[in-house]
Every structure is written in structure tokens, then in C-alpha cells.
Amino acid sequence: MDALQQSLPETLASGTPATSGSSGNVANYMDQMAMAMGNLGTLDGFLRQADNLRQQTLQQMHRILTTRQSARALLAINDYFFRLRALSSLWPARPRE
User: Fold this and answer.
1) For all residues of the chain together, what is the average pLDDT?
2) What's the domain range around 28?
3) What subcellular compartments does it reside in (predicted)?
4) How far is CA 46 from CA 38, 54, 79, in A?
């Protein structure tokens, strides 16, 4: 979420209002800002739902899986998160067009 908030200025950079203060540019900028904030809010809601589902799944894992299956699942989840963290640390350094 922090990375998304940091990328907001980059997203809006193409529509930054002119320093002359023309009302058309300011309105365009405000519209873009409102749309970007709405998109961030939608994404935040989606991520919260996904996290809630993840928590419920982990809490009910003992009912669904055997002990051995649970252990293997937790190891796979750990590997997935390790790879996801590695990818997310590389993402800001990617070449831009």
C-alpha cells in the first residue's frame, strides 16, 4: 500500500496543472486525483478482503487438513511469501520506459 501511495504522484505527473493556474488544468488535476484516490480505496478494500480470507483459511486449516498436510502447506506459503518479498524489492528497480 505504501508503494502505491508513493506511485500516486508519478501517475498524476502527466496531468499536473500549469503554474498559470488555469481552471481547466486544475479541474483536470483534481479529477485525476479523485480517480486515483478512488482506485487506491478500491484496492485497499480488496486487499483487506483477501487478508480476511487468508486469516480465516489459516484458522480453519486444522479442520480441513491433516497435520502433515498443514505442515507442507505452511512451508509452501512461507516459500511463496519469500519469493513475493524478493519480487517486490526488485519491482522499484525495474527499467521504466
Assistant:
1) 81
2) 21-92
3) Nucleus
4) 12, 12, 23
